[in-house]
Design a protein that fits this description.
This protein has 298 residues and is of the alpha+beta class. The chain is built from eleven helices and ten strands.
Length: 298
Amino acid sequence: MNLPLIDIALGMELYATPTPPVPSARICGEESFQVYEVHGDFIVRPPYRALTSHRCQWFVYAIVKRGLSTFEAVSILSRALRCRYAKFSGLKEAWGTTHQLVFLSNCERYSAYLRLGEKLEAIFLGCVERTRTNTGNLFMIKLVVEPEDLPRLRQAVEAINTTEIPNYYGYQRFGYVRPITHLVGKMLLERLWDEAIMCMIGKPFPQESPRSVTARKVAEGGDYCHAYQLFREAGLEIEARISNNLCRGASPLETLRKLPRELLHLYVNAYQSYLFNKILSSLFSSKKSISQVIPVPG
């Protein structure tokens, strides 16, 4: 079976089972793909449990987002409550409906519940002394399958239950529409600041909206002030921030230093994930025991 080029580009170089794809299987809308963040014995899903501790350092909100990246959602909530500090413990993909914790500190405002547009809700859970660590995610996926494909779907499920599966880092680590986070991470490690910036704001992909493609082409042409306006209209907050700094005369390195540290870590982690996928593909292809310890770069 031929692999999609995007899988090869992200280091996912083999299928673990011989079962063919199920052509009619599809997810009907963002409500059919639910992601619930897990923090030990605490799962972020309705009905939400209160979180409290003896000392109050961080407001805790459960957010429900649709069609927003984690960075975008946290930025919107932080601005709405006028908070100086904001933290989260897990990145969730923009597509789908995701439930996760956000920790806020030094806030001028407070609200038990906020609905911030059509894409974001926030529910106050309490106040805690320390932020929590994301230990996993729980997925609920509803598939619609044509009747003639049900036998093929059952065959695929049976194969998964009886086969060792390479636990690749998937598309969400690299970006669904623009799978470039690992490329940016590599450039950052190689100290290629100009190339990293252009990879972030340029290089339009055909799957992007026409407005986003136009903004990226303008950025590639060097008109950062115009690109800033276009990125804002397209709802691309990170690209808008970068373009605005470049428009004001900041160097690529200065612009990178003004970005959230968590975002820069995301890019480097994405490159580590790519290397992990490459090593895992090599390990499975060579039929070695997967119980052995394999040194991973980084």
